[in-house]
C-alpha cells in the first residue's frame, strides 16, 4: 500500500541546515583524514534497506509525475561508453541530447553527453552553442588502475579536447587495502587539474562491499574536492541501488550541514525506466531535500533511460503508451 503522495519539501523545512559560509576542513595528513572518517557513525544496514524499501512505495500525483519526468530528463547524462563507439554514434547521441523529442520542443535537453576522451572533441563540436555539457570518463576508466601520471594525462587530454566535466574513478584496490591517503591525494590532484571544470568521482559502490565503505569513500571524495560523487561505472554487475543512493545522499546532506558546501550525486548503471528514476527522485527529496532536485546537484548516468522517460511523458499527455520505435534507439 502506498503512503501519502510526494510533496517536494525544501531542505530547510526538513530540518536540514545549509550554512551560508563554507568551512570545509583542511586535511593535511592521512592521520587527520582517518580521524574524520572515524567520527562518522556506522550504517545500520537493516534500517537503511528498510527505509529504502519504504520510500519505494511512495505514490505521486499525476501533475507531480509529469513534472518529475521532465526533471528526470533534464538530469540525464546521456552515455555511450562502448569499444565500438564511433563519431557517427556520438553525433546521433548529441542530437538526441539537445532535442530528445524533435516533435516536441517542450521536452528539456539533457544535462550532458558522456563519452570516452578520444570522442570529446567530436562531441564538443556537435554540442557547441547548446546547454548540454560534455562529460568525459578519465583516470583509467573503468578500473582506475594506472599511475597518477597517466591518470592526469588522461584528464588533461580530455579537458584540452573540450570536456566540461570529468568523471574519474577511484582505485578501489587502494581503498579496500586501507591506502585511503593515496585515494584522497589522487582525487585532490585530479580536481586541481580540472580547475573550474566539474569533477565527478566514481566510487564503484558494487565493489566496495559494505555501506560503511560507501559512506567513507563518499566523505573521502568530498573532502578531496569532488563536485559530485557517483555510484558506478556501469561496467560491474551491481551498480546503483536504492540503499546505496540513500547512503550517498545522507553523506552529501551531512557534508553540507558540516561544511556549507553542496556536493552532487550521480547514479549510474542499471537505471532503465521512469519508475526507477522517479523512485530515486523521491529518495533525493526525502533524504537531502529539494535543494538537490536540480541537474547541478543530481544526475542519472544512463543510455536507455531517456527513451522510457519520453514514452512515459507521451503517455501522460495521450493517456496511452506509444510505440518504442517512435524514438531513436541511440
Plain-language structure description:
- This protein has helices at residues 30-38, 45-55, 62-74, 87-98, 120-127, 148-160, 172-176, 180-194, 211-223, 242-259, 274-287, 305-318, and strands at residues 76-79, 112-115, 133-138, 165-169, 198-202, 228-230, 264-268, 298-302.
- By secondary structure, it is α/β, with parallel strands linked by helices.
- It has one domain (40-317): Aldolase class I (TIM Barrel).
- The chain has an 8-stranded parallel β-barrel, surrounded by 7 helices.
- α4 (87-98) links the parallel β1 and β2.
- α9 (211-223) packs parallel to α10 (242-259).
- The longest helix has 18 residues, at 242-259.
- Mean pLDDT is 90; it is low at 1-21.
Largest sheet: 8 strands, parallel, barrel
Q: Measured on Cα atoms, how large is the radius of gyration?
A: 19 Å
Number of helices: 12
CATH architecture: Alpha-Beta Barrel
| Count of structural domains | 1
Provide mean pLDDT, rounded.
Answer: 90
Query: What is the straight-line distance between the termini?
Result: 36 Å
**The CATH class:** Alpha Beta
Identify low-pLDDT runs.
1-21
Amino acid at each position: 500500500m502506498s503512503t501519502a503522495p510526494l510533496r517536494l519539501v525544501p531542505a530547510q523545512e526538513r530540518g536540514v541546515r545549509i550554512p551560508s559560509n563554507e568551512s570545509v576542513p583542511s586535511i593535511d595528513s592521512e592521520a587527520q583524514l582517518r580521524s574524520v572518517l572515524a567520527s562518522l557513525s556506522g550504517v545500520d544496514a537493516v534500517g537503511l534497506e528498510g527505509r529504502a524499501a519504504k520510500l519505494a512505495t511512495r505514490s505521486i500525483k499525476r501533475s507531480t509525475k509529469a513534472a518529475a519526468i521532465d526533471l528526470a530528463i533534464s538530469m540525464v547524462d546521456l552515455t555511450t561508453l562502448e569499444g565500438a563507439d564511433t563519431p557517427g554514434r556520438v553525433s546521433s547521441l548529441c542530437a538526441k541530447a539537445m532535442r530528445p523529442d524533435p516533435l516536441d520542443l517542450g521536452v528539456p535537453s539533457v544535462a550532458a553527453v558522456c563519452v570516452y576522451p578520444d570522442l570529446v572533441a567530436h562531441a564538443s563540436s556537435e554540442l557547441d552553442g547548446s546547454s548540454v555539457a560534455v562529460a568525459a570518463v578519465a583516470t583509467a576508466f573503468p578500473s582506475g588502475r594506472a599511475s597518477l601520471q597517466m591518470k592526469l594525462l588522461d584528464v588533461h587530454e580530455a579537458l584540452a579536447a573540450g570536456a566540461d566535466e570529468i568523471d574519474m574513478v577511484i582505485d578501489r584496490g587502494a581503498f579496500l587495502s586501507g591506502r585511503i591517503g593515496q585515494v584522497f591525494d589522487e582525487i585532490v590532484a585530479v580536481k586541481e587539474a580540472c580547475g573550474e571544470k566539474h569533477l565527478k568521482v566514481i566510487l564503484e559502490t558494487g565493489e566496495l562491499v559494505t555501506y560503511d565503505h560507501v559512506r567513507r569513500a563518499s566523505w573521502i571524495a568530498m573532502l578531496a574536492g569532488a563536485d559530485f560523487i557517483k555510484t558506478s561505472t556501469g561496467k560491474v554487475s551491481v551498480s546503483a541501488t536504492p540503499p546505496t543512493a540513500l547512503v550517498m545522499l545522507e553523506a552529501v546532506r551531512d557534508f553540507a550541514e558540516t561544511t556549507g558546501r553542496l556536493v552532487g550525486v550521480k547514479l549510474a548503471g542499471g537505471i532503465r525506466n521512469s519508475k526507477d528514476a522517479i523512485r530515486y527522485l523521491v529518495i533525493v527529496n526525502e533524504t537531502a531535500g529539494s535543494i538537490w532536485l536540480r541537474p547541478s546537484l543530481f544526475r542519472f548516468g544512463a543510455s536507455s533511460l531517456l527513451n522510457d522517460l519520453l514514452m512515459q511523458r507521451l503517455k501522460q499527455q495521450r493517456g496511452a503508451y506509444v510505440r518504442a520505435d517512435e524514438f531513436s534507439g541511440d
